[in-house]
Amino acid sequence: MRFVDEVEIEVQSGSGGRGASSMRREKYVEHGGPDGGDGGHGGHVIFGADAQLGSLLDLRGRAHWKAGDGSSGGARNKTGAVGESLTIRVPVGTLVRDVVEDIVLCELLTDGEERIVVEGGKPGLGNVRFKTATNRAPRETTPGGPSVVRRVQLELKLVADVGLLGFPNAGKSTLISVISAARPKIADYPFTTLVPNLGVVAADDVGGSFVVADIPGLIEGAAEGRGLGLQFLRHVERTRMLLHLVALDETDPTPVRRWQILRDELRRYDTDLLDRPEIIVLTKADTADEKVVAATRKAFAKAGAPDLLVISAATGQGVSALIQSVWSRLRALPAPALLRV
Q1: Which one, of 254, 264, 175, 189, lies nearest residue 219 by Cα?
Q2: Sequence-distant (≥ 6) Cβ neighbours of residue 245 within 8 angstroms
Q3: Residue 208 CA: distances (Å) to CA of 137, 184, 239
Q4: How far is CA 234 from the centre of its chain?
Q5: 160-339: in CATH 3.30.70.360
Q6: What backbone phi and psi angles, to 5 degrees, belong to 189?
Q7: Is 250 helix (H, G, I), strand (E, B) or coil?
Q8: CB–CB of 161/22 below 8 Å?
Q9: Which residues is 118 bridged to in the sheet?
Q10: Which of 252, 229, 246, 305 is nearest to 274 (CA)?
């Protein structure tokens, strides 16, 4: 399936039904009077989060979405039928923005969460509503409220506990395939990961788990749109911590320099990302001897790097320690609900 994380569509609520103008006319009823009922309320446009969806692809082929109109009221105080509300299902992590007003209407961060984005038109009033002591036979009614059209932009930002960052071929896809059931494409050439992948990692023996997002490889200039960076940097925003993967089998640029380059890209995209808890993970340890590993550790320490772990996803070296370290750090962080902005 194609991964689509940004879509612009037009949504329209239903109009309210018109109130009825009717006078009671029944045999053997000596005193008639107004009996026109109210119209029906127009349908709302609702966005609902669905954890079973992983992309906005289903919305791309339809430009206009409309809820049902309310029907007119009737005689004998009959209220018109309520217009059918339209619920548009989107992936968890979708942000809905009004294009014209440039405001965020809502963010859907939990499965099953629903938000009314466009309210339906209010029902019109029937003539029975206008009966008074001095006006016993009113003919007055009101039309239903108009429908409202909104141009909205949907932007999907994956919700995950941990984001895997690194240059192309840093070993992100291999790691997520080892620690979870995710099965991303893996190959020995750059940019094999073209879409973000999510994996659930079992963390301990008592049912603990966390969600990892494999962000496609970033390169220098990602914040300006080079490579696949700008398209996927948005998915880093909702991660609670970062695992910065640096391969030991590459020396140009040096591991420390690669880490510094991507830190700079994060700063240029959003300075708040630099405050996100981070663990540097030296990958592909099976391809480097102990002297290279020791020298790399020393270089990172000199550069003032935070926590550093060494792993080989291919052999399993250090993977269990990495999972436990991540789990320990996550348990000390605020709950995911605090990620809402």
Answers
A1: 264
A2: 164, 165, 166, 170, 171, 172, 175, 281, 283
A3: 70, 23, 18
A4: 10
A5: no
A6: -135, 160
A7: coil
A8: no
A9: 45
A10: 305
Q: What are the tokens at 293?
A: 């590993």
pLDDT tens digits, one per residue of 151-171: 999 988 777 789 888 888 888
User: How far, in Å, CA of 170 to CA of 183, rounded?
Assistant: 16
Q: Model confidence over 68-117: pLDDT tens digits? A: 999 999 999 999 999 999 999 998 889 999 999 999 999 998 999 999 99
Instruction: Please answer whether residues 242 and 206 qualify as being in contact, where contact means their C-beta atoms are separated by less than 8 angstroms.
Output: no
Distance, CA of 214 to CA of 198 (rounded, Å):
6
Classify 6-156 by CATH class: mainly beta
Q: What percent of the chain lies above the pLDDT cut of 70?
A: 83
Residue limits of CATH 3.40.50.300 in the chain:
160-339
Written as one string, the DSSP assignment of 264-291 is: HHHHHH-GGGGGS-EEEEEE-GGGS-HH
Per-residue pLDDT of 195-239, as tens digits, reads 667 788 887 664 678 888 887 755 444 444 444 444 557 777 778
